[in-house]
Amino acid sequence: MNFLSYLINGISLGSVYAIIALGYTMVYGIAKMLNFAHGDVIMVGCYIVFMTMSGQGWGAVPAVVLSIIVCTVLGIVIEKIAYKPLRKATPLAVLITAIGVSYFLENAALLIFGADTRSFTNVVTLPALKLAGGALTISGTTIVTFLACVVIMAALMLFIKKTKAGQAMLAVSEDKDAAQLMGVNVNATISLTFAIGSGLAAVAGVLFCSAYPTLTPYTGAMPGIKAFTAAVFGGIGSIPGALIGGILLGVIEILGRAYISSQLSDAIVFAVLIIVLLVKPSGILGKQVHEKV
Amino acid sequence: MAKLNLKSMKKSTKDHIITFAMVIVVYIIVQTMITTGNMSSLMQGLLVPMCTYSIVAIGLNLCVGYLGELSIGHAGFMCVGAFSSAFCTKLLQDSIQNEVILFLIAIAVGTVAAAFFGFLIGIPVLRLRGDYLAIVTLAFGEIIKNVINVLYIAKDENGFHFAISDGNKIELSEDGIWLINGAKGIAKIPHLSSFTAGVIMILVILFIVYNFVNSRTGRAVMAIRDNRIAAESVGINITKFKLMAFTISAAIAGAGGVLYAHNLSTVTATPTNFGYNMSIMILVFVVLGGMGSFRGSIIAAVILTLLPEVLRGLKDYRMLIYSIVLIVMMLFNWAPKCIEMRQRIAAKFKKSAKKEAA
Amino acid sequence: MALLEVKNLGISFGGLRAVDGFNITIEKGQLYGLIGPNGAGKTTCFNMLTGVYTPTDGTITLDGKDITGKKTVEINKEGIARTFQNIRLFKEQSVLDNVKIGLHNQMPYSTLTGILRLPKYRKVEAEMNEKAMELLKVFDLDKEADFLASNLPYGKQRKLEIARALATNPKLLLLDEPAAGMNPNETKELMETIHFVRDEFDMTVLLIEHDMKLVSGICEELTVLNFGQVLAQGKTSDVLNDPQVIKAYLGE
User: Fold this and answer.
1) How many domains, chain A?
2) What is the pLDDT of residues C95-153, one digit of tens each?
3) Which residue, B127, B162, B343, C70, could crosslink C74 as a Cys pair with Cβ 3.0–4.6 Å?
4) Contact predicate C38/C58, CB 8 Å
């Protein structure tokens, strides 16, 4: 029974990683860059919810909605100021800028909110599910997290398949210049991608902090990097890949923490990343890309 | 011996001599200030860290500026250098009395250990796109920190004792000593580092990297950076040279770690000294000093270490300023609008210079 | 024996057959042209010959040695050097260093020799400089030796690419559209240089070109590719008068 409850916890954590990984994978697919600051957008979202709920006494729903709006806007602003001018720059320059933005968000939050650890209030009020005569408990947060993840995945895939904006995203990820020639507004599409990714980051952040209720300016960094690992694991650029990679990684982390060593759980996750890159660099569902000569 | 003729020398050679001269002159000034009592003890305490940061920044610059790959795990290599060498000197300090020899052994051990890990990490990752290298080096830094924090090694008359996660498992006899005590790190490290040692290390490392980048191997590394496909087409083995540059870069960071560890009595693997923050700080030195300029890296490392100490008010904003430096430097170098503006200013400058000449 | 013998070479990308049944035989010292409309698969052939792509089927024999499926680096060591359609120079390095990188495998010394500046370093570097300057002189680039490669005008960049390729001491030189973007004067000059290279270095040259004046001016034999398949092959004058070739170029 222990194993089963670890597994469920793993899937729950993995669902959060999957939602965050979506942001990485979409941006990577379309703008061909690693948005290092993505993890820190999560942290900003969490502080918004924390400040409004604990400070202003808001309800969970308006707090989360505000958080999503702020993060979406933040994502667009970051893209406009820091990344858009660098479209033609070397990947190295873009990566350094992204690290700069990530570091900026962390340290700005440090100055604004202080270094104290805040305890986050769980936004999920759903009662826990007791199974097998109380031997197995599934918390409300776990259920909501998993459902949110599945709903978001499905909605996103529908969005890309059925809407014009979604098709534009596909086109830009395939070939930016060709898409431009076909009349796709590349800049708007990239902005939209950042907006969606950042909005999802807010959702993921709230779910993450509901399960692990400690909030500091560095809260977003670790889940962010792990979610990127999940995106690579599943195959970068692939939405179902983000889901598979995220859940697998979550399960590996929780099982590793339970059966190997709690202090080494991060190390295990990163070891997975290195092994994946060694064995199948394109990830589970990714495709190999050839450079044009 | 041939007379030094600055005019007929190659531009790169001149550049190197200026860097060496700069380091030596600063060293002499600092030593004079210390002997005449014009330097506060606070400042004196900063001297070795400054050398450490300079060394690691030189190492990272080799990777970022010449290989064109971003590593954000150089603090991890520093960590490997620090712990392996401190472990070694703690073990040997009773049998080797001469501090210089002991420190040389420490440097050799720390450098080789860091090089080994650089090689190990480089094999899987250097075949891939640059972004992956960044994230894997970051991951590596975290793994190293994690592993050291759960590692317990002790020694007594019964030999060595090892444990992972739980130090209480080790039953140590009374005169046994802890070599690595988990999160408490390595304690009572012999104080072998000094400003003089640091400066000598900088000079030796400068000699190595300058000669490296100006050799056949260095040209191959830069060729890979500039155009991988063309480099392959002229018969340059991409993996071999990437791996070589990355390994050397890691080894230099390891040497920095050796200097760092032997300046402290206790070294622990915490996020502040060997974590992400340290890696970013080193990256800031490299970016601000100019990618590809070793002299720039040293200058940036020295100034940015001094600045928060001199201007106390800046201390809280240090990290924030670092992040802005990274963003602004990249925008300044690459944003089309900034490039245009720079060209306009340069043109204006030329015009007024011409007018003056006329 | 022919220097290069390609038999039944083909490659598929996914379901797309980019090149099919490509045969070519080039004798030592020949100036050989590969022409065809855009998208006919010419550069793909170059990429297979130089190991950038691994052919799906067929064999490539260079100087009696099977080099099919070898990596780019090994193929260069076997004796094929190339230039690129979209110029690929080492832009951040000097013109001289670009050629010296080409000499990488010709004049080796160990990394340690370089770091310690042993006497061998000075000797080999001096030889390298001399050899590189000689090559630059052939292409009239010696005055620009200290320029950054990216600061050269377009036509000179193309020449530098050829010089760099020659530095690897190849048996066969592949030129991908060497005259692209050149004015008639530069093209004429280039034709002379290619002739000179063939005679002076005893070189065999295979080139892709659209400029018919250059093709008819220097190529002794031609192969025409169309839709990934060989349309015509033979003496330049015969091929250019082939009605099928004219049709493929001008359309119906």
Assistant:
1) 1
2) 999 999 999 999 999 999 999 999 999 999 999 999 999 999 999 999 999 999 999 99
3) C70
4) no
Work out whether the CA dihedral B272, B278, B279, B283 comes out positive or negative: positive
Contact C73 B215 (CB under 8 A): no
B105/B97 Cα distance (integer angstroms): 12
Which chain C residues have any C-beta within 8 angstroms of a chain B C-beta?
50, 52, 71-73, 76-77, 81-82, 84, 88-93, 97, 100-102, 104-105, 107-109, 111, 113-117, 121, 124, 128, 164-165, 167-168
Rounded to whole angstroms, the Cα distance separating B268 from C130 reads 54
Q: Does A293 touch chain C (CB under 8 A)?
A: yes
Residue-number span of the structural domain to which C54 is assigned: 4-79+170-250
Domain ranges of chain B: 46-310, 315-348
Which chains have 3+ CB pairs within 8 A of C? A, B
Closest CA in chain B for residue A95: B131
Inter-chain touch A104–B327, beta carbons under 8 Å: yes
Cα gap B308→A225, rounded to integer Å: 30
Q: Confirm whether C156 is domain-assigned.
A: no
Domain contains A7? yes
Say if C9 falls within a structural domain. Answer: yes
Nearest one of B191, B181, B221, B172 to B65, comparing CA atoms: B221
Domain count within chain C? 1
Task: Give pTM, 2 decimals.
Answer: 0.89
- Inter-chain contacts counted by CB atoms under 8 A, chains A and C: 4
Note whether B130 contacts A91, CB cutoff 8 Å: yes
Q: Which residues of B touch C80 (CB under 8 A)?
A: none
Q: How far is B260 from chain C (nearest CA, A)?
A: 25
Question: For residue A13, is it within any domain?
Answer: yes
Note the pLDDT tens digit of each residue in B278-332: 998 999 999 999 999 999 999 999 998 888 777 777 777 888 888 998 899 889 8
The residue range of the domain holding A206 is 2-127+144-279
A273 in Cβ contact with A233 (< 8 Å): yes
Q: Cα(A176)–Cα(B284) distance, rounded to whole angstroms?
A: 32
A181 touches chain C (CB under 8 A): no
Question: Is C229 a domain residue?
Answer: yes
- Asked whether residue C153 is assigned to any structural domain, the reply reads no
